[in-house]
Every structure is written in C-alpha cells, then in structure tokens.
Write a structure and sequence with these properties.
Length: 312
C-alpha cells in the first residue's frame, strides 16, 4: 500500500474519535447557550487571543489560569469577520451578537467585539476550561494509540508551574475553528457542520472501528436513525430550528428523514471531497499536537508523577 493510501486509511480511522471529541468540546463550551451561539462565542474568543496564539513566548507567559493576559493583548474582532469565518449571514450574526451583548456575554468596542472580562472569570468558564483540558489530554492519548500523535521528544514544561490550561484551551479553540470551517465548506455553514457530526455520532453509536468503516460505505442501510427531538435536545436547539437545518442538509444530500429518524448520507460523487476532508482533519490534529509538543504541554501529560508529587 502506498504512503498516500496508508495516510488516508489512518485519516478515516481517526475520524470517529475526532467527531466525538469535537462534539464533547462543543458541549463543554456552550453553557446554557445553544449550539449556534456557542460556536459564535468560540470564534470570537479565538479571534480575541490570536496575538497570543501567534507568539510562542506569549503562549508560555500566559499558559496557566493564574497567568491572565492583560487586556491590551486581547484583539477585538468585527462582526463581518465572524460572519465570514462561520459562513453565516451578517444580519444573523449581528442579531445574535447583540443578544449576547445584552446578556453580558460580549462587549462591543469601537474596533469590534470582545468576550466580556466577567465571563472569563466566571466559575462556569473556568470549570469548562478544566473539562476541555482533560478532554484534549484524553484525545491525545487516543491519537497516540492510533499512531496519529507526534513522534519524538516533546519540549519540556516547567515542573514548578500549574497545568497550562490557558495554553491548551487557546490551541484547542484554534483547532476546533479549523475543523468546523472545513465542514462549513462542505455543508454550508458552521452550524450545519456540527449538526451533521452529531447525527453521524448517533448513527454509529456503539460501533467498533470495522463497523464504522462498513457504515461509511453504506450509511443509509447500516446507520442507526436518530430522532429529531433527541438531536435537538443534545444541541440545545428547538425542534423547529433543528428542522430548518435538517432541510438544508437534506437539500445538499447529506441526510435523509425516515420513519425511524434521521440518517446521515453521502451525496453522489462526494467521496473524493470527504477523503480530502478527513485528510485535512488529520493534518490539523497533528498540527495541534505538534504545537502542544513544542510548547511543552505534552511533556506535562506524559509525566503525571509531577501532579502526583504536588509539584504542579
């Protein structure tokens, strides 16, 4: 088997675990808001800290929860930029952002939108940061077992420091937005992309890797249908809102509604595009863990005795 075929095989093997991971992170980022607002908030938060993400020294300097970056390092983002990144209508994004401003979640400045400082200190936000850190750690070891994690000696993380929760959360959001953007290209927008992932997860619930591979070849006959109400509840969407998104996915050939529920499907001729999608995801996963390795986060995970000794 050629190197390219081996990599494609690995990309498809990684895909089911990635779907579960993305959905778990999305759920741990949403709080009481619905799927659409949760994704929008993640996009704004990632844009606000882009200056830190692009500077390794700043990444290390503001790695832990105790190391909050100063306000002048946070960058406002325009509504049009968020609408573009999520492939959503400007007016829809503007309306939702205004609602979040009224709720105290966002702040508007002359240069754009910021996640409100109070939100960053909210116990729920801090608690979610811990949850996402642990989800990313578990995902790393899952990818390592599948052969998709970096090989070689990782950079070192100071044993005297607390776990790098800010660092891991920043890079995690960066990865999430890349993954959701790639899905958006295929299915229309960010919300449709995550909804389709949730449908796929339910259609393959409990499947072993061989069963997932078989499902991918014949999703209509091998998938487990999921009820609209169950999917809407998981994503904190009204059934009417879910129905509108399902209609859009159905029109593009990505799902069908049957007597027993919803099934994700593969549009005719879509396999090459789906292959590129999973290959791109594998590249992004490896980029994520490559950056975490360079910044020392993986060494912190690979040496759990530091935590046990109380050094961290």
């Amino acid at each position: 088997m050629t190197v390219a075929k081996e990599r494609l095989k690995l990309a498809w093997r990684v895909a089911p675990a990635t779907i579960s991971f993305i959905l778990e992170v999305e759920a741990a980022s949403r709080n009481a808001r619905n799927l659409v607002d949760g994704l929008m908030l993640a996009a704004i938060l990632a844009a606000n800290v882009s200056a830190i993400n692009n500077d390794p020294d700043l990444q290390i300097a503001y790695a832990t929860l105790a190391d909050a970056p100063p306000e002048d390092l946070r960058r406002p983002v325009s509504i049009s930029a968020i609408a573009h990144s999520m492939r959503m209508p400007f007016e829809t994004v503007r309306r939702r952002i205004q609602a979040m401003v009224r709720a105290g979640v966002l702040e508007v400045t002359p240069k754009g939108v910021l996640v409100a400082s109070g939100v960053m200190r909210d116990p729920r936000f801090v608690g979610n940061a811990f949850v996402r850190h642990e989800l990313l750690k578990a995902f790393y070891f899952e990818m390592k077992a599948l052969g998709a994690a970096p090989v070689g000696s990782p950079g070192s993380y100071p044993s005297s420091r607390a776990p790098p929760l800010r660092l891991t959360n920043r890079l995690l959001f960066e990865y999430m937005l890349r993954a959701v953007d790639a899905l958006s290209v295929a299915v229309g927008d960010a919300t449709n992309g995550v909804l389709l992932l949730a449908m796929v997860r339910r259609n393959t619930d409990g499947f072993e890797s061989a069963e997932v591979a078989a499902w991918a070849q014949d999703p209509m006959n091998r998938g487990l249908p999921v009820r609209n109400g169950k999917l809407a509840s998981e994503l904190n969407l009204s059934t009417e809102t879910l129905r509108r998104y399902v209609i859009a996915l159905e029109a593009k050939g990505f799902c069908m509604r049957g007597r027993l529920g919803l099934l994700a499907t593969e549009p005719p001729g879509a396999r090459p595009a789906l292959d590129r999608l999973v290959l791109g995801n594998l590249t992004n996963v490896q980029r994520l863990f490559g950056r975490l390795s360079q910044l020392g986060a993986l060494s912190e995970w690979e040496a759990p005795e530091r935590l046990a000794s109380g050094a961290a």
